[in-house]
């Protein structure tokens, strides 16, 4: 099985992982900002934490895949050692930091969710104070852990290639995607008529405003990397961009740029009415989710020689793997929504 097939698993892993991470982080941010609308959405967002177990299974599969997941590993051994690569590419260290990082973050986020629930059952100052303190830690760990994930599963796939802003570029992109995914999720929950916590129309307007803000922020990080390397005349750094922008993946590269920047920016920045129309918002959101998936696949698979990857969803494995993984995620979310009484059967 070629690297491109494993890139499909990696892409879906990143997707599932970040929906869980961003869902809890979103609750934390709304609490810290004292957003009154958090009471409308926080339990729906925190229900996405059920995806952590799904993400962990995928993480173990990817780490067990070794050379299939990390194409540089096949060339990392020089007479039985890895000394010609930097310490970050030590595979044992990679496995330990990924598993440890996942468990630490999952544990902290679980504590946050526990205290979020406790604040609804008691007015005790100590509980609310501790909840606030834990909420302060959530964005910090999201950034730190997200940076590590971005480096291991995307940036350092090409040994020696680096970008000072890559971590921010990736976790901003995935939070951007979460906002779109969450808007879609709330839209269909509201249409079902089975929600126990009403979802008011203004929620979609707020999400549209946040999507516009993160569209601009993502675009900044998107161009920051390219401009620094292009203006700095760094051909050894530009090679990776050229491989993705000018070879087989070029149509996908430009497609995700359109879906993640041009369409949402033009739609939301030029019309206030569009930011109040749930149907328009969800249409743009679908494009953002698809665009982000294509973006992740491009960065992961594009790190290898074109002979080792393919256009996504052009093989049976791609389709089956994606359907199984996203199907598991769907049923996990559905179970959580029912388990915590957020929807009626």
Brief write-up:
With 345 residues, the chain is mainly α.
pLDDT under 50 segments (min length 5)? 79-83
Q: Encode the helix/strand succession as letters.
A: HHHHHHHHHHH
Number of helical regions: 11
Structural class: mainly alpha
Q: Main sheet, how many strands, which sense, barrel?
A: none
Average pLDDT, all residues: 90
Query: Total domains, how many?
Result: 1
Q: What's the total count of β strands?
A: 0
* C-alpha Rg (nearest Å): 20 Å
In helices, the fraction of residues equals: over 70%
Tell me the β content. under 5%
End-to-end separation in angstroms reads: 42 Å
Which outline best applies?
globular
Protein model, in words:
It is a single chain. The chain is an all-alpha fold and 345 residues long. It has one domain. The protein has 11 helices and no strands. The radius of gyration is 20 Å and the shape is globular. The termini are far apart.
Task: Provide the descriptors you would attach to this structure in a database record.
345 residues, mainly alpha, 0% strand, globular
Topology:
Blueprint: H1 3-32, H2 38-46, H3 51-65, H4 91-118, H5 125-153, H6 166-192, H7 202-231, H8 235-246, H9 250-269, H10 278-301, H11 316-339
